[in-house]
Amino acid sequence: MHHHFLLYKPFGYLSQFIYNLKRNKKLLGELHDFPEGTMAIGRLDEDSEGLLILTTDGWMSEVVRSKKVEKEYYAQVDGLITDEAVKQLENGVEIGFKGKKYTTLPCKAFRLNEVPNLPERGKKIRDERHGPTSWVSITVTEGKFRQVRKMTSAVGFPTLRLVRVRVGKIVLGELQPGQAIEIDSIEV
Question: Which domains does the chain have, with CATH numbers?
Fold first, then answer.
């Protein structure tokens, strides 16, 4: 029988259980007593936070990571994002990936008119003295390395905070940073 978990990955953690390089890093296994063989489905980089699905079922990992499943992110960006920038995000933008230029697939994007109700981040971002910030929702079906961050930067609005809030039908909901809950099955 397989085990499945929803986790709010906090800022500053790697989306993995083993890290063999010399530097000390915070790993997912420090957050909960997960069964042996548990793996993250997809990844969130160390500076990103939010919904991470964990499973002991490798086949389920392939299903969730497919381009059929949407992944929605809330990005706090530097500056007041424009309608033009949002339209560029929706149409696909050119980013660097593995040393080459790559044009992202069309996606869903819209400006959030209010600051989303998210837990405070452990590390302070910056304050308004450094200029205004705004929030945008970006929903993609692909997941290149640091893709959403590269996308917002490509349209002139670098990401300051990135939170994954949805994978398919599964939402972050009321989970708090570091909290994990076991679920019966993964329905995306």
Answer: 4-66+170-183 (3.30.70.580), 71-167 (3.30.70.1560)
